[in-house]
Amino acid sequence: MSVTSIRLASLAAIVAIGLTAGGCAGYRESRGYILDEQLASAVQVGTDNKTSVEKTLGRPTFTGQFNDNEWYYVSRNTSTFAFRNPRVTQQTVLRIRFDAAGNVAAVERTGKEQIASIDPYGKTTPTLGRRKSFFEEFFGNIGTVGGVGTAGQGGRGQ
């Protein structure tokens, strides 16, 4: 091999390694509401109402499921390396509760400590009852359609 072909082969190897390593680069992402600290601290209990909060912070990320007088602003920053699942680096949930008249009753802020870690139980969910084989599932209902006392009588009034 000549010196030129060795240099060309090593250059190709370096480029290939660089392209491969570039696919493993991590990235950061902001999700949800982008929380402005000055605007969030401007919401005052007893002073503001739904209209002023919406003008200050905008529409909420979501409202309470059972109570429309609870507004939530959710902000989350994540980071991902290569092909792994995203990892939460920072989270802020701003919860604003309103009284019946629509005035701000409480402003609460929580962070990453409220995230629940859920581990699935294997690949199946345990259930109560009996396990049936493939053939019991497949052939189990043969003969049950149209039996005595069932709805399979063709709708005849007898």
Labels describing this entry:
single chain; 158 residues; alpha+beta; five-stranded antiparallel sheet; 4 helices; flat
Explain this structure:
- It is a single chain.
- The chain contains 4 helices and 5 strands; from the N terminus they run αβααββββα.
- By secondary structure, the chain is of the alpha+beta class.
- Strands 1, 2, 3, 4 and 5 form a 5-stranded antiparallel sheet that branches.
- Strand 3 and strand 4 (87-98) form a beta hairpin.
Helix content class? 10-25%
Quantity of strands, as a count: 5
Head-to-tail CA distance between termini = 97 Å
Uncertain stretches: none
Biggest pleated-sheet summary: 5 strands, antiparallel
Structural class: alpha+beta
Average pLDDT level:
80
In brief:
It contains four helices and five strands. It is α+β, with helices and mostly antiparallel strands and about 160 residues long.
Write the layout of secondary structure elements.
Layout (H helix, E strand, L loop, with lengths): L2 H20 L4 E6 L4 H5 L8 H8 L4 E2 L6 E11 L6 E12 L5 E7 L23 H6 L19
Antiparallel strand pairs: 1-3, 2-3, 3-4, 4-5
